[in-house]
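Internal ticket - ligand job 421, S-adenosylmethionine:
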Amino acid sequence: MNEFIGWCKARGYKFDGLEITCPPGNCGNGIYSTTTFRAGRPIITLPEYDMINSALVVDLPFYRKKMAKFTEKLKPMEILTMFFCFEDFETSAWSPYLKVLPKEFDTPAFKGIDYDVNTLPLSIRKFWVDQKKEISEISEKVGDHYEVRKKIVFQLRRLFPELTHDKILWAWHVVNTRCIFVENEEHDNVDNSDGDTIAVIPYVDMLNHDPQKYQGVAIHEKRNGRYVVQAKRQIMEGEQVFVCYGAHDNARLLVEYGFTLPNNLGAKVLIPQEVLLTLAKIAGIAVTREHEMVLEEVGLPSHLYATDEGPSWSLRTNVRVMLLEHWQMANGRWKKIIYSHDPIDEEVDQKIDEKLEIMLKELRNGVVEKTKKMPKDVQWMWEEQVKVCDVAIESFGTNDSSQKPRSPVEKGEDKEKGSEE
Ligand SMILES: C[S@@+](CC[C@H](N)C(=O)[O-])C[C@H]1O[C@@H](n2cnc3c(N)ncnc32)[C@H](O)[C@@H]1O
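stdout (structure tokens):
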């Protein structure tokens, strides 16, 4: 670690009052404060040219030469993965940094765990599919298959015999678990058709995630040519400095970063429109095609979030829409009602509560039933969803679990109704 710290200082990084140590638990290294920082003070600064982004890599002579062999341009994720595949731990200019990177990761992809997508909660499903696709696409392009396709096996094998699927998987994880959102300039040799917004930033990438406690916010100060992490509130001596990687639930944290958080407020339950409609019907709301069309036009999500004190405004509004009378919807009259700033009529408000409570209990029971049927290794993801439902239900203040309506699954009416599916 000392070699890395010296390397950073020699490159102009500033991080007085911080030290990298291993926090308790299994989270690798973290950054701790050895002094008190006032809110607004920069705690880490480094020159922007030290951000490892696609432009930096493709302009390095080694990679420029290497990429000249390809007929197509690579995307930013592929370029950064390639960089971590090929940099030599001993001879690279980044050697002290490469040596402090984790050797392995606790993500399902790294451990070779392949979830059946149909057993995952909706909140993580698309992300899991996209991640698998991205890893296999990268390993095809940079690895064996790509070489076969391009008939340059011989040259690449001769130049880079160490390039294996395992190496690519490791390099991809380095990028995916450590990259930060930045707005990179366009570069002629980069395929930025899907954007170019990632960079791996040494030292800054030692910051761990805590969405509740985080004190560090990162800013690319283009005008000053530097990258800065600032204290967004006072940081006390001895505290671990955290940033927030995003409002992710635990399934997402595990799949993307290989860890979970106790009491994660990023937990959420996605309620797609067809499930909302089913729940509404169970709660006795007479939903017509007209209601469905208005719901589509309003376009609000019906999700439940662990951070919400009760069902969100958008979920309540969707229920409100479904309670509209035919005459209230005719000729676009619903817009005046739904978008009005006037307080909602107390009677309507009570009706929304009453219906929502039934709907959410039904949803909860459906998720509980689903949880029981899921393989053991993903049950905890569903249990987290049950907890989110519980918090929302508790907000109604009745909290009488014996009164929970039986789910359609229990009643044997419709296997999928009332579940998150
Ligand atoms: C950007 S790196 C942070 C530095 C990292 N701990 C290291 O030793 O290099 C992200 C990785 O740190 C770990 N991590 C970050 N926040 C964590 C937390 N709150 N709990 C456990 N592990 C965490 C995970 O392994 C994640 O993939």
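Auto-summary: The pocket of S-adenosylmethionine is lined by residues 27-30, 102, 177-178, 205-210, 257-259, 261 (CB under 6 Å). Confidence is low (pLDDT under 50) at residues 143-159, 400-421.
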